[in-house]
From TrEMBL:
This is Methyl-accepting chemotaxis protein. Keywords: Transducer. Residues 297-550 form the VWFA domain. Residues 318-575 form the Methyl-accepting transducer domain. Pfam families: HNOB (PF07700), MCPsignal (PF00015). It comes from Halanaerobium kushneri. One of its GO terms (cellular component) is membrane. PANTHER family: LYSOZYME-LIKE PROTEIN-RELATED, METHYL-ACCEPTING CHEMOTAXIS PROTEIN MCPB. The lineage of its organism: Bacteria, Bacillati, Bacillota, Clostridia, Halanaerobiales. GO terms for biological process: signal transduction.
């Protein structure tokens, strides 16, 4: 599919569905966004079919419906693109010329393969048209017919006769198109046809036949022998009759003269017919053939001029855009040249600044090296302190264990004292009972005889012993109570110190863990400092290389500045040439428009 018709399709679709939807469908169909379509551009048939398919999906229509609708509206686009095919023309004349137009496109655009639209007249108000194409775009073709009828304001009836596929693979559709009015303008000369007797086609033969009939009729009259006066009158009458008949026979010359006048007036339409059944009819038909040939040539020129005019207008717009772009480029190039100079200066300044930064970085690297050594010494000291803390913690753990044993022994001693207290209570109880028993014994001895006195003495001594035992028990109880209090106080103090030792031990463990963790963190930080110092040294070397590159860039920037100035001069020259070319294109547009206006005088 050539670019001319695709351009009209895209224009019609954009006018109908909007640029956004059409561009979206074009992208899906594989059209390049920056594609400039010219008459020589070839677009794959499948891309146009995909375009209709994706557009139909977007707008909710069947592709056949879109083809038909586009055919109706595309006539308006064609009329703007090729006005010569539409101006001063009837619908029938337009349809009869379409096959010729397509053949001309085939000759004008190498590789073009438009459909054939063969048309022939069937009668005064009906033509037959056959569409032949490998693309089978029936809906688009019928839409074009409907759009043509609307454009020329000529009602028609379309009857489908046949459709199918030819032996060469092309699809075809044959239709009959009926018009409300006759499109032929016939001029009939009945007398001339009668004189031809159905077989005489020559004017001289017809004249001879008239002379023969007139002479025979004159000779056959009785008055023929009546005298010379009568014969003279008969001859005069015969001459008049022959003159009248000759005038009638030669009257088609007026129609031929009218046709020649129309040709002189550049009117090459083909609606008149002459029916005389003689040489005049042949001459008129030959004149029609000459007009047909001229019409084809003029039509080719007018169509080509329309196409050239349209693309010249586009080219003028493009040239004007190029002129604006060229001016913009010239401005930008000037700015680039100035920027290149500034860049060269800034590059030198940047190189100087970077060099100073490198020196500072080298100092930082040296300081980092010293910091690394100090950190390593600090780590060693912290590790020694950590080990000392661990040792102290272990000793405290030993003391804690000893205190735990003492605390346990204190508890056991308290338990033993409680046991002794129980024994003392028992002794006290026994002493009390003994004292009571001695009292009873004394009473009984007093009641008895002198033999019981010795027993009384013993009982008294036992009582005294019991009282002494009771006193001793009290003393023991008192001392044991005090001892118990001292033991409990000692045990409580030991427990308290034991708790403090446990807390101290826990704190020392946490300190040891924190110290160890801090040591690990400091070691990691030391490693990072080492890496940073190493990286600084590496980056310093790289930055040294960057400085060298900066110096090279400064030199290149100087060269770019000089090149930019040269390019600026070249672009300015190029801009002037584009302006000059734009002037020539505008002259070409004027020339094309003049040529187009001259061709408008031809009514084909």
């Amino acid at each position: 599919m050539k670019g001319t018709v695709v351009s009209t399709w895209l224009s019609t679709l954009t006018r109908t569905y909007g640029e956004e939807k059409v561009n979206k469908a074009k992208k899906k169909a594989g059209f390049k966004e920056d594609l400039i379509i010219t008459p020589m551009t070839t677009i794959e048939d499948q891309k146009t079919k995909d375009l209709m398919k994706y557009l139909g999906q977007d707008v909710g229509k069947d592709p056949r419906e879109i083809w038909h609708e586009m055919g109706i509206k595309n006539i308006e686009t064609f009329s703007k693109w090729f006005p010569s095919y539409f101006s001063n023309r009837t619908l029938k004349n337009f349809l009869m010329l379409m096959d010729t137009v397509h053949l001309q496109l085939t000759e004008m655009l190498p590789g073009a393969n438009p459909p054939r639209l063969r048309a022939k007249e069937l009668n005064d108000n009906q033509i037959e048209m056959t569409y032949k194409s490998k693309r089978g775009m029936y809906d688009y073709f019928l839409g074009l017919l409907e759009g043509s009828s609307s454009f020329f304001k000529t009602p028609i009836e379309v009857e489908e006769i046949d459709r199918g596929t030819l032996d060469d693979g092309r699809d075809f559709l044959t239709i009959h198109i009926s018009f409300e009015k006759s499109f032929r303008n016939k001029k009939k000369y009945l007398f001339s046809k009668i004189l031809g007797l159905g077989f005489l086609k020559s004017i001289p033969a017809k004249m001879g036949l008239i002379g023969f009939i007139s002479s025979f009729a004159l000779i056959s009259l009785p008055q023929f022998t009546a005298g010379w006066q009568v014969n003279l009158g008969g001859a005069a009458g015969l001459g008049i009759i022959l003159t009248i008949i000759s005038k009638i026979l030669m009257s088609p010359i007026k129609a031929i003269d009218d046709e020649l006048s129309k040709i002189e007036a550049l009117n090459l339409d083909d609606e008149n017919r002459l029916q005389t059944a003689d040489d005049f009819e042949k001459l008129f038909e030959k004149l029609r053939q000459i007009k047909s040939k001229l019409r084809e040539d003029i039509l080719f020129l007018k169509g080509g001029t329309d196409d050239m005019h349209n693309f010249t207008e586009d080219f003028v717009e493009l040239a004007e855009d190029m002129e604006e772009v060229s001016d913009s480029i010239s401005t930008v190039v000037d700015e680039v040249a100035q920027g290149a100079q500034a860049q060269a200066q800034e590059t030198e300044e940047s190189a100087y600044i970077v060099n100073q930064n490198v020196e500072e970085i080298e100092k930082l690297a040296e300081a980092g090296q010293e910091s690394r050594d100090n950190l390593e010494n600090a780590v060693k000291n912290i590790r020694s302190s950590t080990q000392a803390v661990v040792d102290v913690n272990e000793r405290i753990s030993g003391v804690r264990s000893a205190f735990a044993n003492v605390n346990q022994l204190g508890k056991q001693l308290s338990e033993k004292i409680e046991t002794i207290m129980e024994i003392v209570d028992t002794v006290e109880e026994i002493a009390g009972q003994t004292n009571l028993l001695s009292l009873n014994a004394s009473i009984e001895a007093a009641r008895s005889s002198d033999n019981g006195r010795g027993f009384t003495v013993v009982a008294e001594e036992v009582r005294e012993l019991a009282e002494e035992s009771q006193q001793a028990v009290e003393t023991i109880r008192k001392n044991l109570g005090e001892f118990t209090e001292h033991v409990e106080t000692l045990s409580s103090s030991i427990s308290e110190q034991f708790s403090n030792l446990e807390a101290s031990n826990q704190a020392l463990e946490e300190v040891a863990e924190s110290s160890n963790s801090a040591t690990n963190d400091i070691e990691a930080a030391t490693d990072q400092v080492v890496e940073i110092v190493s990286s600084l040294n590496t980056e310093t070397k790289k930055i040294r290389e960057v400085i060298e590159n900066f110096n090279n860039l400064a030199a290149i920037a100087q060269e770019n500045s000089a090149s930019s100035e040269e390019m600026s001069a070249s672009v300015n020259s190029y801009s002037e040439k584009i302006k000059e070319m734009t002037g020539y294109i505008e002259q070409m547009e004027d020339l094309t428009e003049n040529f187009r206006n001259n061709l408008k005088g031809y009514n084909v």
